[in-house]
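[Meeting: bench + compute handoff]

Bench side (C.D.) handed over the final construct sequence. Compute side (W.E.) agreed to return the predicted structure before the next meeting so the bench team could plan truncations. Sequence as handed over:
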Amino acid sequence: MTLSRTHSLATSVLVGVLLCAPAAATQVKLAWVPVSESAGYRVYWRPSTQPYGQGIDVGGLLPDADGIVRCVVGDVATDVPTYFAVTAYDTAGAESAFSNELLLKLPLLCAAAALAGCSAPVVAGGAVLSMRNGAGVNRDRLGWNWRHGAAAGAGDFGDPSRDTNYVLCLYDDSGGVSSLALTVRIPAGGTCGEKGRSCWRDLGGRGFAYLNRSMATGGLLKLKLKQGTDGRETIQMKGSGQSIALPDPVAGSFVQQDPALVVQLVNDATPSVCWEAFYSADARVHTATRFKDVSD
């Protein structure tokens, strides 16, 4: 991150490390290249919907043996995306402009139980789920075709080409007790393939598409998010090989579905948005290696 010049103070601050533990509030470690002629530094952070406050004066920190300045700040809320910036000041107290911001997000994980309030298809049978546990992990297949959704808001999909992550979560009931059976994470940004192509593609304001054919992930992963008028929003996901981790059969069944399966796609936009489908009717195909059903 580069800061502008304030008076005679050259201000080049590079924030390079953010570490935190998953908790409601935690410590965050920041690291940056020292600024020559600086007398000290101030660290600022803010939730995504708020401006910066007073910040904290961390003083004239000395660099470690590797030449990097490090600082730990505490009591940072981690239940919302949080932005950080650093300034440097000279002996007269003249402070530089803010560095470029660095965004802290916790890894997006599936909750232990299905979330409430997710968007569902507006018609029965609007989402088809199919899974196949092939002979060998590279022959596994997953498909989720979610259609006939209510119209998505302008910001529901966030911007996965930059900073909105996604995760697909499958919950399986056994004797009425739900447990998380499958997690598929689709990270924001990134490049996929030998040519360094962006994993995400903006569909001209109509949504986004993700494609990763890289064998480094052991298979194929595709996700298409498409906006539409009411009843025309669609989500299509396909996965194969090691890009997915299908559950092992239990007692001769691929899944228990006792009484239902729930599939949810969740993102970490601000605010977070999720889409879901319930599967409680007898599956069209349900064996030790295959499952296919339409939603309620």
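W.E. noted at the follow-up: DSSP finds no helices and 20 strands in the chain. C.D. will use this when planning the next construct.
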